[in-house]
Specification:
Helix content: 55-70%
Structural class: mainly alpha
Radius of gyration: 22 Å
Shape: globular
């Protein structure tokens, strides 16, 4: 490929800056329209309530979403032309930081989880109790209580997230707005760290792939919205899992396995990758790698013990056992409603068994097929995550797709296209539940509502998967 001219390089840099500044302006508009400083102590707001559910507001939000994804695409295209530039990665990360900071002071318009993180951290930091045993509601004078969606619930995250929450809550020392901003800043750090890890992985395949991949993470509209606006902790889990893949690619299971377990100690979902990591390592290194694998497992076990030691509260410490019987915006939820929903007591256990069993079967089959190469392991992680989102996540939420992002970007091809499509269509969940549900409440029965949500969320990536796969097959045959 011919070296770019000075004029071509200057044009590429200008386009990259234009894409970033345009995106930052859109995020800043959101922060100015719904400022955390004015709304931070107002109970339980969301986009629907903040906009009055007026159709013009919805059209503006959708137009902004389309615009930011177009600028995201432009940035990725331009990044390929700048892939060999010395300051390419610092520029992408710096502009990614700009995007996150532009949205940082927005009210968490789509979820209240960040207030829950702070409340659960306060239980230990301010009250000296165990967040796995004591719910926020036990402390009636806490000004956070009106802001919580689940005040009666103890922590359903892992012990590592518990310690991070305690540390931030101790730093905030009762200041709600400061605590929320600190949680968001923590997420921003992990967002950019994940972009660096993805860059290091893709650089193994060539610099022309590394910089666009880093941008697809650092500039992801899904990531900016769910981290800088809503403050979700999924990016911490996703980043640590990506570091685990990078460590495995470098032949360091003693780092990879503790990193993967650290990821699961934030949110438990990423434990689904553990069998694939173990099998991939054994297939890639045979007997020569067993000792290093054993060391990795030992260190991972020590990490779990240290993290849970002071907080262990029996089965109450295992968050994935909580919130059973909840169904929304998923194929499982649609099936549940078709079987009668709450009016049929047998519906929930039946759907849980069928969809849970289907997920385990798919996960087992895909894990068994994992290869010894890191690329094959990354592809397996993508497939496992997608199977989880489609079959195992009965209570689907858009921020769950954050975990899919690094696997999509590093896998490339059909998986990348499908994952990026899902990162866009996931936003339509907010349209369904915060607007359409209220506009058509007399027409949308529960089964129709769930069908609409599933169609909006999973329909576009399914089409992308089919179209991209159909185009790929003739190319492979040729």
């Amino acid at each position: 490929m011919a070296a770019p001219t000075r004029a071509g390089r200057a044009r590429s840099w200008a386009l990259l800056a234009l894409a970033a500044v345009g995106s930052a302006a859109l995020y800043l508009v959101l922060a100015l329209a719904f400022p955390l400083s004015h709304l931070g102590l107002v109970p339980r707001l969301d986009l629907g309530e903040l906009t009055g559910r007026e159709p013009p507001a919805v059209l503006l939000l959708l137009a902004g979403l389309v615009a930011v994804f177009l600028l995201y695409w432009l940035g990725a295209v331009v990044a390929r032309a700048l892939s060999r530039e010395r300051f390419g990665l610092p520029a992408v990360l710096g502009l990614g930081l700009l995007l996150h900071l532009s949205a940082l002071l927005a009210y968490p318009v789509a979820a209240l989880d960040v207030f829950g993180y702070l409340a659960q951290g306060n239980i230990a930091a301010l009250h000296g109790a165990n967040p796995f045993l004591a719910p926020p509601a036990a402390y009636g004078g806490d000004p956070l209580l009106p802001l919580l969606a689940w005040p009666e619930e103890t922590s359903n995250y892992g012990a590592l997230w518990g310690w991070l929450s305690i540390g931030i809550s101790a730093w905030a020392h009762g200041d709600i707005l400061r605590g929320v901003v600190l949680f968001k800043l923590l997420g921003v750090v992990f967002s950019l760290a994940m972009a660096v890890a993805v860059h290091r992985l893709m650089d193994r395949q060539g610099p022309e792939k590394a910089l666009p991949a880093a941008l697809l993470v650092a500039w992801s509209p899904l990531l900016v919205f769910e981290v800088a606006v809503n403050g979700h902790n999924d990016v911490v889990m996703a980043c640590l899992a990506t570091v685990a893949l990078l460590s495995q690619a470098r032949g360091r299971p003693a780092v990879a396995l503790p990193s993967l377990l650290a990821s699961a100690l934030v949110k438990f979902v990423s434990v689904i990758y553990l069998p694939a990591f173990l099998l991939s390592w054994l297939r890639g290194h045979a007997r020569a790698g067993v000792a290093r694998l054993g060391l990795g497992l030992l260190l991972a076990g020590v990490l779990v013990g240290v993290a849970y030691g002071p907080l262990w509260a029996g089965l109450d410490s295992l968050g994935f056992l909580k919130r059973e019987g909840l169904f929304t915006a998923s194929p499982a939820a649609l099936t549940y409603q078709l079987l009668g929903g709450y009016e049929n007591p047998a519906a929930a256990p039946l759907v849980s068994i069928v969809f849970g069993g289907a997920f385990l079967a798919v996960a087992g089959w895909r894990t068994w097929r994992v290869s010894g190469a890191w690329q094959g392991l990354g592809a397996a992680c993508f497939d496992l995550t997608l199977a989880y989102l489609a079959l195992g996540a009965f209570w689907f939420q858009p921020w769950y797709v954050v975990l899919l992002l690094p696997w999509a970007v590093t896998s490339g091809g059909v998986r990348r296209a499908t994952g990026l499509a899902l990162s866009a269509s996931a936003f339509l969940n907010y349209l369904v539940y915060q607007f359409l549900w209220f506009w058509f409440v007399d027409w949308l029965s529960e089964p129709l509502l769930q069908a609409l949500a599933v169609l909006c969320i999973f329909g576009p990536p399914a089409v992308v998967w089919l179209v991209a796969g159909a185009r790929r097959r003739p190319a492979l045959a040729a």
